[in-house]
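anyone seen this seq b4? input:
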Amino acid sequence: MNMNISIVVALYNESESIPELVAWIERVMAEHKYSYELIMVDDGSSDASWTRIEQAAQSNPNIHAIGFRRNYGKSAALFCGFKKASGNVVITMDADLQDSPDEIPELYRMIVDEGYDLVSGWKKKRRDNRLTKNLPSKIYNATARKMTGIKLHDMNCGLKAYRSIVVKSIEVYGEMHRYIPVLAAKSGFTRIGEKPVEHRARKYGITKFGWNRFINGFLDLLSILFISRFGKKPMHLFGLLGTLMFLLGFLSIGWLGSQKLYHVHRGIRTSLVTDSPYFYLALTAMILGTQLFLSGFLGELISRNSTERNTYQIDKEL
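predicted toks r here
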């Protein structure tokens, strides 16, 4: 029998919240009679998170876990969780109890009954500090909507539901977990929905994110837009720019040379070609054009011969 749901929880130093989260998920799954697995990925925690996971797994055979040797980041954790997931629908959520497991049944229904490929949570009423979290998040999401064309209010919400084939078809690496909807859309999964979800105040510990995530988020957005368009064909960008710059420089030098020959032929005194600043500008354009072309050529060779980017050292597994 096919499993209904795989719940993937990426966590880092959340030992206090793990028992409560597991009990909450167990209660929701039992109430709705779902067949499920709970995959917990410990991203190199330095507290007792792994011990808490082991204790929970002793009494619940549906719990599976992966423990990293060191902290690799949320994208690495999700990638390994997605790889292990076997349910028809995959749900992701954070371990800090700010995401409510009570949202899972409706997210599952939207995937199964309404035919969405991906449903993203929307923390419409946030419980974060308005200045340090709420306002920057709105600016970040508005920028992401404008640049990607995907109309989600909360691109980075950890609570999401996916059709199984979606998570098996995308590669999450680096810091790209923020843009999984973009990765999915670029892979042809365009039925992307949104659901307002409850956002709870953090009960234990402190947030793991700082201001730098907004800067990194914008840079990652530029990266994913570039990679999605030119990642498999870098020559199309660098080769085109390089060719245009080289031709511009070559034609400019040709024009300067022709002008010099015309003056010599007419017996008109004129300065040396190398005395003109335009000569050096044209020469620079030719050099930069050659370098851009070679960059595209090397990028093409690398992209065609690249190995797997997701190589993480798993220290333990249940």
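The mean pLDDT is 84. The two ends are 22 Å apart (CA to CA). kinda curious what u guys think
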